Amino acid sequence: MHPIELVSITKRFKAAEKGNDEITILQDLNLSIVQGQSTAIIGKSGSGKSTLLHIAGGLDSPTEGKVICSGTDFATLDDKRRSVLRNRHIGFIFQANLLLEDFSALENVMAPALISGVKARECKDRAVELLERLGLADRMDHVPGKLSGGEKQRVAICRALMNRPEVILADEPTGALDEENASEVENLLLDLVREEGRSLLLVTHNQDFAFKCDNVYLLKNRNLTLEKEAT
What we know:
By secondary structure, the protein is of the alpha/beta class. The protein has one domain: Rossmann fold, CATH 3.40.50.300. Helices cover 34% and strands 27% of the residues. The protein has seven helices and ten strands. It has a six-stranded mixed β-sheet with strand order 6-7-8-3-9-10, sandwiched between helices. Strands 2-1-4-5 form a four-stranded antiparallel β-sheet, covered by helices on one side. Strand 1 and strand 2 form a beta hairpin. Helix 5 runs parallel beside helix 6 (179-196).
């Protein structure tokens, strides 16, 4: 079973200031995420990369087609059950790290497990282990305002991995970082995904980052073209 499957996905939006006209962003697109592999989507700004990622994660719905997450069609679920499925099977990393500003790094990482009903004492060890692995042992009690950009994004990676999701969805996770921090975060993310046997779906403008992944697709003219395939 693939952690996420996109089946004949089409996405249309109403065109601003054009009455009932619609713009097609994605057209009859298919993609299967392979367990234990990393997959990158590259393409120009406005090509629909983020839209594709949001659809894959159940944050948006396709106009046509199906999104199957861990064997379940998102379209068959109400909002509450969709959120539960995402919490259990998907970890998200965004360019804007979206950390909770009033909570420490440790509390931010623990949050997905707490939301899923795990008691604090049971999830703390996992959160501490992840933060230590990413070099944040001495920053656990710091709130995001006291962390650098690179440290915040490492906390976001730990949070995404907290519930041991089958797949990580990452939208330009190093786009706001300088070159040195970006390279460090890229390698940490890919190493952790491999070590933990997770799958990764990444959208990025950074071709160097993209081609470190097992599979690379170009999103162009509303569909995907395979640029690199895992051997």
